[in-house]
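can u do me a favor
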């Protein structure tokens, strides 16, 4: 199986056990796990996907993409990977902004 960042994050949304195992890991370990699962993307592609997604969601919500971006408020008290899987990818899917 090959795929991109969004597909990997969607898999994590479906596999709570895997998300739970990876959410406390560093980016290198998360990317290595993605590779082991057959997802082919680089760290730069991951970073680009995440930033582009957040920028597009801010634009869709007519909000500036700055420290006050409202979607980031959902991240408090959670791990960043949880936020990406639960909020960013689901918001992209709901709005049709998937890359």
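np, heres the sequence
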């Amino acid at each position: 199986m090959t795929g991109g960042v969004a597909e990997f994050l969607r898999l994590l949304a479906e596999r709570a056990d895997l998300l739970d195992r990876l959410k406390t890991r560093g980016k290198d370990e998360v990317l290595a796990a993605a590779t082991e699962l057959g997802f082919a993307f680089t760290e730069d592609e991951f970073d680009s996907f995440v930033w582009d997604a957040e920028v597009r969601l801010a634009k869709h919500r007519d909000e500036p993409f700055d420290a006050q971006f409202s979607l980031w408020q959902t991240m408090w008290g959670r791990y960043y990977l949880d936020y990406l899987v639960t909020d960013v990818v689901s918001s992209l899917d709901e709005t049709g902004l998937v890359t």
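The mean pLDDT is 85. hope that helps!!
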